Amino acid sequence: MQHLDLQVVEQAQEWLNVGETVWLCTVLSTFGSSPREPGSIMVARADGRHLGSLSGGCVEEDFLERLQAGEFHQRVRTERYGQRREDDRPQIQLPCGGILDVLIERLEPDDGNRRHLAELAAVMRGREQRLRRVSLADGSYSLSPLDNAGGDRVEVAADGVSVRMGPSLRLIIAGLSSVARPCAEFAVSLGYEVIVCEPREEEYRDFDLENVRLEKTLPSMFIAKPGNCHQQTAVVAMTHDPRIDDLAMIEAVRTDAFYIGVMGSRLTSDKRAARLLSTGGLSADQVERIHMPIGLALGSKTPAEIALAVMADVLRVQRGRDRNDL
User: Which InterPro entries does this chain map to (predicted)?
Assistant: First the structure.
């Protein structure tokens, strides 16, 4: 899940806690072009205040206008955008003829809903996925453990909807560098929670990256701490300093991180692999988990181009695409 989705749940909690009814909207399925994937969420109040998104803006505008006009009073319902309506009311047309199905839940400020959102937030800050089931008959919901991490994010049946909930996407950047900065900015725009670990005061003294968390500690120490690396975490090292990069890799391969990469030429990468095997205590399988050289081979030269190649490769692995399929 994107870090934005955690912010949506936290905002919904805040509004419920002050006595506001909220509408929690979840993208169920998309056909054709759609800016957000199934499972993405948005929360809104009756006065139109909202956080999160469902599309590029047109769907949100229509929903909020109708919400303020008094629609969506049911406990639960689904809405389809991008297809002609039976009542001939003007319908939103999505880019490229896309269709978007949305689950809309009306949550009143009672103890049950507050408790459920607190549980959702805990799952998104944790390490393991849960399955959220919502009944389309009465809007009742539940959270249950999952036996595996794979499968479709959202499943829709005649009687209900199941959504896989889990930790929000996280990027841990081991050390600041000219490449780390644009990499962090790209990751924030992609919805990642971004954490920079930098123990060198001369590097972080003028730290000014918006929406990026700074940890003034060795990356390896932060990575090794239980709970900091989960299945939705990517770890990248781009300082060219083996005291930072190598130690970060040694700890990262012992975690559930879905992507681990370190910058360097092919020759540098080969030397690093030999070093990690001989003195780092890693096995061949652990070294194989490390993407080195990091990133897609785009012919990148500038720091921003290298950062783009890095985040493109992280996205490729996150989406389960093989390099040969590109």
Answer: MoCofactor_Util/Proc, XdhC_CoxI, XdhC_Rossmann_dom
